[in-house]
TrEMBL record:
Gene3D superfamilies attached to this UniProt entry: 2.40.50.100, Nucleic acid-binding proteins, P-loop containing nucleotide triphosphate hydrolases
Protein name: Sorbitol ABC transporter ATP-binding protein /mannitol ABC transporter ATP-binding protein
Species: Ruegeria halocynthiae
Bilayer-crossing regions: none
Family as reported in the entry's similarity comment: Belongs to the ABC transporter superfamily.
Amino acid sequence: MGQIQLKQVTKSFGDVQVIPPLDLIIQDGEFTVFVGPSGCGKSTLLRLIAGLEDITTGHIEIDGQDATDVVPAKRGLAMVFQSYALYPHMSVRKNIAFPLRMAKLNQVEITKRVERAASVLNLTDYLDRRPGQLSGGQRQRVAIGRAIVRDPAAFLFDEPLSNLDAALRVGMRLEISELHKRLETTMVYVTHDQVEAMTMADKIVVLQAGVIEQVGTPLELYHTPRNTFVAGFIGSPKMNLMTGGEAAKHNAHTIGVRPEHIDVVESGGQWQGTVGVAEHLGSDTFFHIHNTGLAETLTVRAIGDVNLKHGDTIHLAPRVDEIHRFDADGLRIA
Ligand SMILES: Nc1ncnc2c1ncn2[C@@H]1O[C@H](COP(=O)(O)OP(=O)(O)O)[C@@H](O)[C@H]1O
Ligand SMILES: [Mg+2]
């Protein structure tokens, strides 16, 4: 089991409240991602759940039991950090076994659990190596192994991949998702990277300045962002947000159109502009367009290779049913 509930939780450091009253339920078995810009309180929230920080007011329940005053080691949660502090002089086997030796489990049980974790993580062949003889990805897996053997109610990850290079990050992202499918254990994962959030999460919690802006599945956030913050944060390249006359035509203060929902046409499109930078990726072309009279830069994603270059005039047709409308407070208009 691993349901985690935050009830009216707040956190202040001195006089500064970084988490205003916050309610959240993380369901058993769910992969929940906290995402938001740097400094928005993601790590703090995770550390409150882990018990590494005391909450200022409110309650935390784990599987329906009040855990607010329970020490971290007794919460049954396992935290995997970004800097995966392994013991360099110990073998992989000993590193993974370490929390079990601390908990004074018997040797037979320790061996059984370490070997099971190693098998799940494809580390069986590396058990007798030292961390220095492993790649970054393998070291990260050892750190996860150390968490798995404790058979936690939930795993807590704080930006575990941000030290890895881009290719490895994509690989580890898949591995952690795969691991979640296999273990079916609750995972709470913190990242500032919305692509990581979109690709891994069952449920995304978008935070800004300690406040939950929206909770939903990746596609709920993509299709129906509650406000302009979520609209601009989720999706890559970012949604184009426009105010002024074009928004007024749609009875809104602000309208938003994703780059992939604006078609490049030969002529006769509703909008036109001048191509600035054109990023040719082969699979897609991203155009950064100026002089549209709509926004300083409009970003448009065309499928495949579209042969327009810097300075060319581009004709655009936004898909009207994909236009998001927001009021003067930035809230979505249904
Ligand atoms: N120990 C601390 N003492 C004082 N302020 C802190 C402490 N830890 C975090 N903060 C502040 O709380 C806010 C949230 O920080 P953090 O949770 O680390 O953000 P994130 O993980 O989203 O980047 C920041 O403004 C940060 O400066
Ligand atoms: Mg952080």
